Amino acid sequence: MGVSFGVLGPVVASDDQGRGLDLRGPRHRAVLARLLIARGRVVPMTAIVDDLWVSPPERAAGAVQTFVGALRRGLEPARPPRTPSRMLVTEGGGYALRLGPADSVDAWEFEAAVGAQDPGKLRDALARWRGPAYADLIDAPWIEAERRRLDELRLTVLEDLAEAELATGRAEEVIPGLDAHVTAHPWREKGWRLLATALYRSERQVEALEVIRRARERLGTELGLDPGPRLGALERDILTHADDAATGLWAATAATYQQVAPSGSPLVLQSTVAVLGDLAVMGGTGLAASRQQRLATVDAAERLDDAELAATIIGSFDVPGIWPRSDDPEQAARVVAAARRVLLRLPSAAVSPRARLLATVALESRGTDDPDAVVSARDAVRLARDLGDPRVLALALSGSYMQCFERTGLAAERDSIGRELIDLSTRFGLTNFLVMGELVRMHARSALGRFEDAAGHAESLDALAARHGRPAITVFTTWFRAMRHDAEGHDLTGVEAGYRHAAESLHGAGMPGVENGALALALLGARLTRNADLPVLPRAAWGPYFPWVRPQLLVALGRRADALKALDAAPDPVHDNLAEAMWSLLGDAALALDDRRRAGQALDHLGPAAGEIAGAGSGMLCLWPVARTIERLKLELPRTRA
After folding, report:
1. pTM for the full model?
2. How high does pLDDT run on average in the chain?
3. pLDDT band, residue 642 (cuts 50/70/90)
4. Which helix (H) or strand (E) segment is 290 a member of?
5. Which of 17, 457, 563, 629 has its CA at a distance of 20 to 30 angstroms from the CA of residue 30?
C-alpha cells in the first residue's frame, strides 16, 4: 500500500484509496515533517528534540518515542502488532522515513516539474498547492527555511508558466495574473519583465513601458536593487522595434554588398568569415551551417598568394570553444593542417597573424593530446600579450583554455583564464569572449564545489543570451542548473527529470560532441551517488564514454569476470573536463573488483584533483568529491590484488 503525503498546505497523509490517515496532533505532524524534509536521511533524536521545543521538557525523548509510535500506527494501520515498520525506521540513535516506489510527497512531485516548459505540467504542479507549505505547524526556524524554499520554487513555476503561455501566444490571458504577481512580489524582476512583454505583445506598448518604469522605481528606489540587463534590453526593443528594424537593415545591406563587392576579392572572404562567426554563436542550424562553410573558406584562403592575408582570414574565425571535444574531428584536423602550412609561409614580422594561427591550432586541436598544440597555445598567448591587441589576446586565451586539460586538477587554472577573459572582454566589448569567460568560470567554480559562485555566472550568461540573441548559451545554463540540483542531493526523480529537460535543450543545438552520451552519464552519476539501481540504456546512449562506464555496469549485473576484462581493456581516459569523472569511475570499479593495477593508476591520476568534484567541471553531471575516491583508494589499495 502506498502512502501519499501532502505538505503544500496543512500536513496530511492518505492511503492508496485516498482515505486520510490519522497523524494525531501538531507535534506528531512536526516530527513527520522533520523526517520528510530530511528526505530519507536519519535525523538524530537530539535534533528532533531541539526542533520541537525551545526548552525541552525532562522526558522529551520519551515524548518523541510516543509520537513516533503513534505515527507508525497511523501511517501503517494494517501492520501486524510487534512487526517493524517498513516506513518510519529507527536507525543509529534517530529516525528516518524510508519511502517506497508507491509512496509520494506532493512537494517532491512539485519540484520535479520545476524547469518544465509544458504549460499543462506547470499548471498541474501549481494545483498541488492547498495553501502555505506546512501551514498548520509551528514557526520553527527549520520549517521556516523549508517554507521559504518551497515558496520560492512556487514563484519560479508561476513565472515559468507565464513564460510558457507567452510562448504559445496567450499574452492577453497572462496579464492579470502577472499584474497580481508583481504587486505581491515586487522584487521579482522576471515577473516585471514578463508582464511588460505580455503587454507589448498585446499591442499595449505604452502600458508595457509604464510597467518597466514602475519596475525600475520599485526595484531601485524602494528595494535598492539594480535592474538587470534583460529589462533594459526589453525596453530598448519596445522603443525601437529592434527586430523589424534589424531584419530590414540586414536585407538591404546584404543586397548592396552583393552588388558592390568585387568578385573573388579577399575582402569577400574576410566578410564571409565574420558572418560565419556570427552564425556559429547562434547555435542550432546556424552552428551547423557555419561548420559546413568554414572549411571551404579556409581552403580558399590558403590558395591566396598573400600568406599574411591567408593567415588573417583563417585566424579570424574568433568563435571561442567551451567543450574540449570536437564536434567534427576530421574538419578540425584539416583546419589545423592548413593553419600549420600557412604558418610556414608567414614572414617573421607578421606577429598578429601568427598569434591568430597559433591560437587556431590550439583551439582546433582540442581533445587530441597533441603536445605541439599545447606549445602553440602558450606561444599564442605570449605573442598576443606583446602585441597589446585585446581581440587577439582573447582568442589566444581561448586556445589556452582548450589546452588546459593536459592532466587532472586544473580547474583553478581554467578559472584564472576565465577571469582574465571576463575582465578583458568587459573592458573592450568582446561579447563572444565575455560569454566564454562566464562559461569557463561557471564550469571551473562548479568543479571546485563553489556552486553559488557558478550560479552567479549562469545568471550573467542568461542575461547575455537575451541581450545578444544567443540561445545556444542557455543550453549550458540549463545543464548547470540540473547538475546543481543533483549536487544538492535532491530526490532522484526530480534530478533525473531535470537532466532529461536539459538533454532536450541539446536536441538541434548543433553540438553533437557535447550531446553524445551526456544524458546517460548524468543519469549514471545521479544513481551512483544515491546507491540506486544503475540506468539500463542501449550501448549507443553512452557515446564515447562506454569503455569507462562498462566495468561499473557489469559489476552492477554481478558479472565479475566480464567486468574485470572490461576494466583491463579500458583505455586511459582522454584529457578533457570529464577526466576526473572517468578516473573516479575506473577507481571505483577497481576497488569493487580488487584490481590493484587499475586502482593505483586511478590514485596517481586523481591525486592532483583532490580539491575538485568529479564531473562537475563539465557543468553536466556530478559524481562525488575526488578526495573521497582518493581516500578509499589509499585505504583499500594495500588489500587489492596485484
Report:
1. 0.60
2. 86
3. very low
4. helix 284-302
5. 17
Dihedrals φ, ψ of 541, to 5°?
Answer: -65, -25
Record the cell numbers describing residue 201, joined without a space.
Answer: 505583445
User: At CB < 8 A and 24+ separation, what contacts does 450-454 make?
Assistant: 451/484, 451/487, 451/488, 454/480, 454/484, 454/619
d(CA 362, CA 372): 9
Q: What angle do the packed helices 390-402 and 351-364 form, to 10 degrees?
A: 30
| Range list of H helices, 12-135 | 26-38, 45-52, 60-75, 106-112, 119-126
* 170-194 pLDDT per residue, tens: 889 999 999 999 888 888 889 999 9
The ranges assigned to domains in the chain are 4-124, 169-245, 273-473, 506-639
Q: Which CATH number fits domain 4-124: 2.60.200.30, 2.60.120.560, 1.10.10.10, 1.20.120.1080?
A: 1.10.10.10
CA angle 537, 539, 541 (to 5 degrees): 60
Indicate the fold that domain 169-245 takes in CATH.
Answer: 1.25.40
Cβ neighbors of 276 (< 8 A, separation 6 or more) are 290, 293, 294, 297, 317
Q: Residues 87, 3: contact at Cβ < 8 Å?
A: yes
Residue type, 160: D
Q: What strands lie across the sheet with 4-6, from one edge to the other? A: 12-14, 4-6, 104-105
Burial class (CB in 10 A: 0-12, 13-18, 19+), 258: exposed
- Cα–Cα nearest to 620, from 467, 502, 507: 502
Distances 282 to 199, 359, 510 between C-alpha atoms, Å: 27, 22, 10
**CB-CB contact of 205 with 238 (8 Å):** yes
Band of residue 98 on the pLDDT scale cut at 50, 70, 90: very high
Report the SS3 class of residue 624: coil
Question: By C-alpha distance, which of 52, 43, 239, 259 is closest to 143?
Answer: 52
Determine the 3-state secondary structure of 12 from DSSP.
Answer: strand
Taken in order 155, 156, 157, 158, is the CA torsion positive or negative?
positive
Q: Does the domain spanning 273-473 belong to CATH 3.40.50.410?
A: no
CA atoms 264, 270, 273, 278: torsion sign: negative
CB-based burial of residue 473 (10 Å sphere; 0-12 exposed, 13-18 middle, 19+ buried)? buried
- Find out whether 633 and 603 touch, Cβ atoms under 8 Å: yes
Q: Which residues pair with 14 in a beta bridge?
A: 4, 20
- In this prediction, residue 281 carries a pLDDT of 57
Give pLDDT tens digits for 549-559: 999 999 999 99
Model confidence pLDDT, tens digit, residues 593-610: 999 999 999 999 999 999
